[in-house]
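Section 3.1: Structural characterization of target chains.
Under the original work plan, the team committed to producing a structural model for every single-chain target entering the pipeline before any wet-lab resources were allocated. The record below documents one such target. The sequence was received from the expression subgroup and is listed exactly as submitted; it comprises 76 residues.
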Amino acid sequence: MGKLSGYKYREIVKGIKLFGFEFYRQAAGSHEIWYNYSTHKFTTIPNHSGDMPEGTLKAILKQAGINSEDFINKSR
């Protein structure tokens, strides 16, 4: 298990809010679009129960332009 494993939806949302992201709109199914008005970046977050797969969280952070180490340090 890597450093990004074990995060739940609520923890991820709490973390990206610290980087300036806000809920933008509901997407298909259980997915949500989040937007950062200062960086003009979007990211899609699936709202699923249980732990988020590490690869999914990496993709979310990549879309958002957030370094994974910064995310870990700021969110936990």
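The mean pLDDT is 95.
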